[in-house]
Write a structure and sequence with these properties.
This is Ion transport domain-containing protein. The protein is mainly alpha-helical. Helices cover 61% and strands 2% of the residues. Helix 2 crosses helix 4, helix 3 runs antiparallel to helix 4 and helix 4 crosses helix 5. The longest helix has 30 residues.
Length: 198
Amino acid sequence: MASNAGGDKSVIMNEEELKRKQREKLKKLQATGGNPRPARTLFLFSLKNPFRKACTNIVEWKTFEIIILLTIFANCVALAVFLPMPEEDSNNTNIRLESLEYIFLIIFTLECFLKIVAYGLVFHEGAYLRNCSFCRNSFNILDLIVVTVSLLRPVPAPPTAPAAAAQHTGPPDPAVRRKKRPIPTIPCQKKSDADSAV
C-alpha cells in the first residue's frame, strides 16, 4: 500500500505539473495576443528588434485591422464601379479608379510586409502562411498571391508620342484598326411614289 501511495503521489504531481505548464503556456499566449511569436523572423529580426516590435504593434493594433477591412471594402466598391470598355477606351471615372488601384496595392503590400516581419513567413509556428487557424491561413495565402500577382503584372506603356505615330505611313494594321459602326438608315417613301399609288 505504501508503494501505491507513492504511485498516486507521482500521478498527482504529474497532474499538478501539467496544470502549471498549461498556465504558463496560457500566460505566454495572452501576453502575445494569442499569437505565439517565433524568436526570429526571416532569419533576421529578433523579438527585441525595434523594427519588428513596431511592425508587431501595428499589426496587432485593432484599428489597423479595421483600416484593412475598410480598404478591402473600398477596393470591392471600386471594382464594382469600374466600367470595362472595348479596345482600351476609357472615361474619367475609369482613369481615376485605375490610379486608385495603385493606392490599394500599396496598402495591401504594406500589410503583407508588416505581417511577414512581425510573424515570419513560413518556417515558424504562427507564421504568416502557417497560422493556427485554417481560415486565417487561407486568407493569408490568398492575400500573398493577390499582392504578388498585382506587383508582377505588366505596367501599361505610356502613350506614343505624336511624332512617332506620324512616321507610320502605311495602312493601319487590321488587328489594330477599329471597326466602323454602320450608320442606321430609316427607309422612307418618296412623295411621288405615294401620290402615284393613290
